Amino acid sequence: MQPHLSKADKDGRRAAFHSPWALAFLFGCLVLVSLTRTEDGGRKRLALSTPMQGIRDDSETDLVVATRYTNATYPGPGRVFRNKDRTPYPATMPGRPYDPTTTSTYERLWPGYKRPWWATKHPRFRGFRPPEGHSVCYVHVGKTAGSSIGCALGFNLHCSERQQYLPGRLPKSATNAFHKDVYDCPSTSSFYLFVVRDPLARFRSAFVYGRPDELDLAGEGKNWNWEKTKQLYVECSFLTASSLATLGLAEDGQATDECKQRAKDLMRGTVRYEDHLFFNYQYYLEAIPHGSNILAIRTEHMDEDWNDIELGLGGRARANLTFPHDNSKPKGFRDLSLSDEEKRLLCRELCVEIQTYKLLLRKALNIDEEQYELSVNELRESCPNEAAPKQCDFHTPNIKQKLVESRGYPHA
Predict the structure, then answer these.
(1) What is the pTM of this model?
(2) Is a pLDDT exceeding 80 seen at residue 163?
(3) In what order do the strands lie in the sheet with 136-139?
(4) Which three-class secondary structure state does DSSP give residue 109?
(5) Judging by DSSP bridges, how do beta strands 191-196 and 136-139 pair with one another?
(6) Cα–Cα dist 383/358, whole Å
């Protein structure tokens, strides 16, 4: 039985509870949080809990590199023919000595190369370090509204002069980026944030984006990969997604056998005819460490997914989010329509890409079952056969060499 306490004793106990030491202890407990799955009314949601442990970076052991390169013999991933006169860059670029103390993963992977400006953050964010367990590496998949999300996160990318970063915790947590052959994700990244889009819609946008313009055709463009681009778009006359399907993918298509193979290689990401189709979902997923924690923002539901992640990081949802719209290429009338048969042909070649897209949605910690089913139902409208659980008619491409030459791995 508790003895009777006077009012002074009770006030003293309350004062002790609210002491600075007690408040500091509570604050420390709140800091050590992270994102994980939880169930709320049958829906998977993000919640604050203890940090996830045991995340292993297998990047040094996932791939066996048969050929060992040295800095003197291997210039780096996709980094040949980038000078204006299309001569190779030297292995170690003059005036850019390798700094062994650099904090950039990219610069450590490729000595002599500097992290591109677009992969850095706006000065407002550069001094910020997220709490342990909250760091996010942004995986910028091309033609998914990735530039819009990247600018909103505070990366430079293709942003307009008026930087349009958004407030909140997510932009502060996203410290590094991964885009094409620039892998700058620290091994300590807690989460990998993908922006994903319906694969057929992404293909159509990338195909138009890569199509040569008048400057390219005149030999005055800035496309360092012009010879490959010309092989596909000009030599094979694949100027629209429709013509690629009917001429290059149909059994009775009028394209040569060589051009038909080029069409398949383009869509499967096995030859670099167009950058954003070469660096596809399969590449980005296989490039990050095995077992990583994945977050996803769906292009079709950007506001909803951004707010879910923001809430999971301890922030708050915001109404009427406005994302910048940058780095798009206008589509002509010929690009706007596809027949059902043309869609079927394109979707068949995108099969692995579609299955990887569904896998990314399944792995995303912030996408619940209802949201997943909604996205799959939307996918059925464009690629009904591939939206169903299935195996593809062809083997998943082996992209080991692509990863070695583009993503880069520490050399023994």
Answers:
(1) 0.78
(2) no
(3) 182-183, 174-179, 136-139, 191-196, 294-298
(4) helix
(5) parallel
(6) 12
